[in-house]
Amino acid sequence: MNRLIRISHATSRVSKWLSSACLLALVAIVIFDVAVRNLHIFNIAGLSELANYLQIALVYLGLAFAYQDGSFIRMDLLLERFKGRAERVRSISVKTVSVLTVGIIFWFSWKTMLNSYTHEIVSIGVLRVPLHLPQAVLCLGLLLFIFQMLLDLIIELLGPTPTPSTANAEATS
To answer: What is the spatial distance between Cα 162 and Cα 87, in angstroms, rounded to a whole number?
Structure first.
C-alpha cells in the first residue's frame, strides 16, 4: 500500500513539474511578445498560437496533480450526508465512473492524435504545427490523470473498510 501511495505522489509531482514548465514558458512568451511589440522592435508571428498550445498543455498536464491535491470542485453538502460504509461505496462508485469517463475521453483523444499523425494534419496558423504534437501532450496529460485516478481507486479498494468508530472519529475531526 505504501508503495502505491509513493507512486501516486511521484505521478503527482511529475504532473506538477510538467505543468509548471508550461506555465513558465507561457509567461516568458507573453512577456517577450508584449515587450517587443511595445518597443516597436518587431512582431513575431505565431507566438499567440504557441501560447495557446502551452495553455492546453498546462491544463491537461496539471490534471493528475490537481486530482491528487484535491483541488477539484466537490459538492461538500452532498458528500457530508454519507457516513461509514455508504461513504466507501459512494467513493468507489464515483472513482470507478470517473476512471471510465476519462478513459473514454482518452481513447477518442488518442484516436484523434493517431489520425492527425497518419494524415499529416497541420494547424492552420502561421507555424503550421503538426497537430499530433499538441494532441500527444493532451493524451499524456489524460494518461497521467487516469493513472492517478486508478492508483487512488486501487488504494481505496485495498484500504480497510471504515468501522463506525473510525467513521465517527473522522466526522468529528
So the answer is: 9
Domain range summary for the chain, segments of one domain joined by +: 2-164
Q: What is the pLDDT of residues 101-145, one digit of tens each?
A: 999 999 999 999 999 999 999 999 889 999 999 999 999 999 999
SS (H, E, C) 1-12: CHHHHHHHHHHH
Residues 6+ apart with CB under 8 A from 118: none
Determine contact, residues 154/4, Cβ cutoff 8 Å. yes
Which backbone phi and psi does 122 adopt, to 5 degrees?
Answer: -120, 160
Phi, psi of 130, rounded to the nearest 5 degrees: -60, 120
* Cα separation, 81 vs 93, whole angstroms: 16
